[in-house]
Amino acid sequence: MKDITNYQDKKILVLGLAKSGVSAAKLLQKLGALVTVNDAKPFDENPDAQALLEDGIKVVTGGHPLTLLDEGFALIVKNPGIPYTNPIIKGALSKKIPVISEPELAYQVLSGELIGITGSNGKTTTTTLIQLMLDKNSGAGHAYLAGNIGIPATTVVQKVQDDDVMVTELSSFMLASISTLRPHIAVITNIFSNHLDWHGSRENYVRDKMHITKNQTAQDYLVINWDNEEWQKLSQQTNAQVIPFSRKGLSTNGAYQQGDFLYFKGEKIIAVDDIKVPGVQNVENALAAIAVAKISGTPNEAIVSVLKTFGGVKHRVQYVTTFEQRDFYNDSKATDIEATQVALRSFKRPVVLIAGGLDRGYTFERLVPDFKAHVKAIILVGQTSQLLADAAKTAGVPVIKFADKIKDAVPMAYQQSTENDIVLLSPANASWDQYPNFEIRGDEFITAVNNLQQGKKA
């Protein structure tokens, strides 16, 4: 980490806590700043604020009082989730007080190289693949994961040395507040239409995504999905060297699929069937990671080793185990119909599906073709059980059963499976009717699968 004095004795406001806010406040304190943190949650219910107060940091909780702007702050570090419509942010900008994101602060003290990954889908998997590939390159320094993947960049940056690289997942919320952040390699996996309620319009969303490349120069690289004409046109906005990746083989000037193999600039890297995590979306993620790894000088053996062994990011079509010739996958992150469609289309073998969850007021007709093509049996849980059962009946799924919770659904799914089947948790719904979050739901699935496996061995 660089030793900078920019913030010595400067009054700085950290707006919003959670992991990134706590981490930013601690780093700023280490840099000699006079830090105030402000969080909407009341102090008595706010263990993060309580801990920071014990560390000597001023805390203001229970709301966002506009009077804070009278305290002469030189800078505001904003939690990514807080929109620009927040009165304090609007007031700060009107007073010409700079507002930055937590990754921007981390970049200011970064000693090593930054690789930044953004996109509507595939960010976390691509970020993880890149980190694993670069870390296998024994001739280089360490590669560290950071950012929207759940590890604050301001925490990670403190251990990054000159020869290291920080592989950072950057959300559109983070990128909206970019000022000087400049990845040596930027990756855009794809851009669809997400979070429009926060950004206000698709135009704003795309603009904020493209901030990942706005400070890049001709010495840098932009790795971008080439399988959409809009994304090709967006690449014209960068000053960096453009390295395309294409599952459709639309460009051979980067990473691409041709037939059953993945290539980089004409060099064969790996067979598609050798990639451990299934699905066309993971072919795209692999291509993006291959491009970054090759630019970074990573040998093919390291790239191939990772792609052959990486079982997926937890809760995202995550390979759990194989026993009695059934493969078990945890896709608890599939909290909407589209995610479950992607998961089902990832498999060529019959699927016993576990699905269901929070009723958000919609039905599931869109899943009928995918049920018909892929699902041999379905086990349903949660508020949407009957709605999903209606779709399964329309699709002609021969076995439809109901369970109380995921732990009960797993042995039922096993009973309906035969050798070479896939047992898949992909709920197509949020978890909040029965579980605090999708992670706890996925963990229950993994535990139930492990218990089932141990019971069969006993």
UniProtKB/TrEMBL annotation:
Residues 315-428 form the Mur ligase C-terminal domain. Its main location: cytoplasm. It holds the Pfam family Mur_ligase_M. ATP binds at residues 119-125. Pathway: Cell wall biogenesis; peptidoglycan biosynthesis. Cell wall formation. Catalyzes the addition of glutamate to the nucleotide precursor UDP-N-acetylmuramoyl-L-alanine (UMA). Belongs to the MurCDEF family. This is UDP-N-acetylmuramoylalanine--D-glutamate ligase. The gene is murD.
